[in-house]
């Protein structure tokens, strides 16, 4: 459409570097587990069968598994339009060097911390199906907030809320793998082309 325009809300921080976040990788896969294809099918089994037929040819690129190697990389950037591999630089106190110069004792330590990131090990697939016996829409999602998911879905779909939540295998405080949020459908199923049929997304 000629009148359509992108809506972009980038940060105004001077060191911030923006990048697109497409749902599927295009041209370059930037982390292990990044989805490269999506399959829609009438049933989950069919979607899984179709996903198994997908073949992807990968060319090896340099691996930057830590901050030091990523910062040292000059010619191979994660995003080609960036000036380096640093997403954003923030200074807590610009006068640190001044105060450090006045200190009688200076202790220097290099501390490596574990990565705190929701990707790439956490699956992002979501399965939703209509439970005819319970008269509910059941949404299975790897999330820590099933109650919030339930509330938001009920509001978006204009449904009365009814909760069925189950949590299991919550690892180290990260998102659980078996959380279910159910939204009661007392007003009938959502009016979608896939009404009455399970719709599965199988990321590869």
Automatic annotation (TrEMBL):
This is Aldehyde oxidase/xanthine dehydrogenase a/b hammerhead domain-containing protein. It comes from Rhizopus delemar. One of its GO terms (molecular function) is iron ion binding. Residues 8-62 form the Aldehyde oxidase/xanthine dehydrogenase a/b hammerhead domain. InterPro entries: Ald_Oxase/Xan_DH_a/b, Ald_Oxase/Xan_DH_a/b_sf, Ald_Oxase/xanthine_DH-like, AldOxase/xan_DH_MoCoBD1, AldOxase/xan_DH_Mopterin-bd_sf. It comes from the Eukaryota. Keywords: Molybdenum, Oxidoreductase.
């Amino acid at each position: 459409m000629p009148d359509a325009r992108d809506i972009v809300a980038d940060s105004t921080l001077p060191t911030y570097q923006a990048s697109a976040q497409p749902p599927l990788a295009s041209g370059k896969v930037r982390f292990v587990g990044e989805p490269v294809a999506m399959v829609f099918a009438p049933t989950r089994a069919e979607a899984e069968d179709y996903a198994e037929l997908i073949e992807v040819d990968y060319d090896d690129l340099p691996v930057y598994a830590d901050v030091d190697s990523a910062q040292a990389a000059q010619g191979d950037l994660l995003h080609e339009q960036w000036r380096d591999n640093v997403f954003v630089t923030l200074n807590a106190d610009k006068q640190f060097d001044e105060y450090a110069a006045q200190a009688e004792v200076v202790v220097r330590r290099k501390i490596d911390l574990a990565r705190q990131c929701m990707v790439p090990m956490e699956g992002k697939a979501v399965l939703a199906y209509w439970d005819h016996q319970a008269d509910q829409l059941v949404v299975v999602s790897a999330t820590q907030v099933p109650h919030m998911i339930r509330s938001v879905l009920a509001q978006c779909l204009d449904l009365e809320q009814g909760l069925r939540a189950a949590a299991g295998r919550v690892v180290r405080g990260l998102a659980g793998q078996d959380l279910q949020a159910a939204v009661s459908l007392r007003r009938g199923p959502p009016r979608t082309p896939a009404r009455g049929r399970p719709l599965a997304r199988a990321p590869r």
